[in-house]
Amino acid sequence: MSTNSGETRPVIVQKYGGSSVADAAKISAIARKISDRAETGASLVVVVSAMGDSTDRLIEMAREVSGGRSPEARELDTLLSTGELVASTLMAMAISSAGHPAVSLSGQQAGIRTDTTHGSARIADIDVARLRRELELGRICVVAGFQGLADNEDVTTLGRGGSDTTAVALAAALDAERCEIYTDVDGIYTADPRLVPSARKLAEIGYDEMLEMASLGAKMNPRSIELAAVYDVPILVASTFEDVPGTLIHGGPHMMEVRRAVTAVAVERDVAKITVRAVEDRPGIVSQIFVPLAEAGISVDVIVQNASLEGLTDVTFTVSKADFERTLDLTRQTCAEIAQDVVGNAGLAKVSIVGTGMQNGPGYAATMFDALSSSNVNIEMITTSEIRITCVIASSSVKKAANALHSAFELDAVDV
Amino acid sequence: MSTNSGETRPVIVQKYGGSSVADAAKISAIARKISDRAETGASLVVVVSAMGDSTDRLIEMAREVSGGRSPEARELDTLLSTGELVASTLMAMAISSAGHPAVSLSGQQAGIRTDTTHGSARIADIDVARLRRELELGRICVVAGFQGLADNEDVTTLGRGGSDTTAVALAAALDAERCEIYTDVDGIYTADPRLVPSARKLAEIGYDEMLEMASLGAKMNPRSIELAAVYDVPILVASTFEDVPGTLIHGGPHMMEVRRAVTAVAVERDVAKITVRAVEDRPGIVSQIFVPLAEAGISVDVIVQNASLEGLTDVTFTVSKADFERTLDLTRQTCAEIAQDVVGNAGLAKVSIVGTGMQNGPGYAATMFDALSSSNVNIEMITTSEIRITCVIASSSVKKAANALHSAFELDAVDV
Lengths: 416, 416
What we know:
The structure is a homodimer. The first copy, chain A, is of the alpha/beta class. Chain A folds into 2 domains: 174 residues, 3-Layer(aba) Sandwich (Carbamate kinase), CATH 3.40.1160.10; 149 residues, 2-Layer Sandwich (VC0802-like). In chain A, the strands form 3 sheets. In chain A, strands 3-6-2-1-9-11-12-10 form an 8-stranded mixed beta sheet, with helices on both faces. Chain A has a 6-stranded antiparallel beta sheet with strand order 14-15-13-16-18-17. Chain A is globular and about 70 Å long. The two termini of chain A are 42 Å apart. The interface between A and B is large, with 43 and 43 residues.
């Protein structure tokens, strides 16, 4: 045991989302809390997102100058990375002003190396040497989330919600005690409280359930949950400004004992559907559609292929609304020779029921479809996993669908 | 002679200021001109400043989060560098959209290495390897002005107007044919036309004269002129949007023949004055005041020391208004023990007459003082060089002073 500089203090990684750092007053308020927390002895690494709607404003400018074309992904990445640089430098200044030494680090400076998939790069490696050096100097490190550097020295971004990934990856690389995600909701709920007034907060939830609930009010990034599960990083989701208990996402064994049949209703908006009509039904045709999308870094979610009629079939798949136009363009090019038509609809959403208890129990799908049908919600597509059933529906039906399911699975009464 | 890739085309470096790229429409309009210009066969490197008043907005945010303290220079540099990153990526997107391949490069990616003087770093070296590589691929390189990278991998900025320095330094490093500075005025005038309605545009001007006229409507950065003179880079100052002849700044021998007695009246606003009152008049005392300022990267301009009275003297010096508070704080610390008082005034300006013909002719100073006195302009400080006489006056007197001098030296009638 020694008390000299060789001693390592526990590392906590915190992440603050865009709405938490939306203006100077909020940044200053958070900075004071962070500074106070540092006085308790923890080594703090703080990951920040871009302020408020600044990312949306940058995307809008990119569209304006691109005259109808999709902005180049490489340029868009450097452009968007500036939002987090602004937030991280302002936060470092505010923490210093609140009384604790702090230093901002870009993704590059924080040692985050990625592949070259602009727009949704994957972290390849984190060199924590500089972070460790700054922490040893007693500084709070404020890291610009969402970004990294590719081997060709070009800036990359990790996709929307990428700051969560940055935080969890840094927590894993630094062997942190835990990762704390601060946001404008105070935890994970049985449904988005803005949609379902009777939704209740969960005290804890397993990685696998959370992974299925891409968006439950807390808008956690699935990649970050996956990463947390792999490296066993406990994540606390809590309110930035209210001092109330949050929800702990972890993989502890006691999670098995509190298993519920259906834990929550998840909603994902901004879903777009692309249908390739009357495509020839022969081997290789599906890869001909999807390989170019993968190469363009577009994530395809649900894929449905109808039964073949006279050697022709319809292939329908969903992408995020943000990728809709790019996907439609690309798919039309790809399918010009092999399909009759490519059509799309960007006004969709996904509503899901999630729960580890579902995997051995029957009847959940039937109950779900019945509840939606009783509420006059039309189901456009269906997809399932072991612990989830998802229906794609019209975006306009999201609210009544979520409430109907929350009641049907008796989540209003769940004891948390 | 060969037409293969070994052929080198002439390189032109262009620079567009903040008002030229203030919004998406302006960026798109410039992008079309740049794309057209590239079709004429030149290899183009385009340096851009931050959009419109975005730098001011970033500084304002930094102040807000710093709670009355000066924001840390290291953090401020990374923060401000984002303004040029935004402009450069949007410009690259717009040029691509206009039909010519383009790539944005940050200061770091453009190979610009600097010392570590945050806020006013000096370029130490430029590695043009990547620029050359991109140009050989037929791409227009859009470089984020105003910024570089220090050896410790921290982002630095070159000070206000630093994008001019970036442009001229790149022109020198690339052995460019010339550097074109596009701005919201269409050349260098005998005085700022916004102050002096009878001001006339000059077709050409020498480096030495231009160097003295830090701000003549074109707001050229003196460091960039100095750099251009050393590397003999001709600079064209011209209008971004109007297609009219600009002013060529160069060192050609014919400049000697068109030498005028007084070429122009220069005005520099945003001057601040610091007076150290009743300081002990002994050797070493002046360096005790100025060494800490130099170490803090603060440029001191005019220095005046009054005659000693009873072993005490007053030392007055000017700094830019932007450095005023920092300088006042620092000087008060430095002089706490050795002077009676430190006072300051940030509401000043400099008005100068400039001309290579002045160096051998008498009477220019007398004419200048007489003209100012006749207009009831009080002179606070006086400083001269071989080809310039400068008076520090109240900011509020700038307009009448400039007009009085423009008339007194018959610049209204100059034939350009």
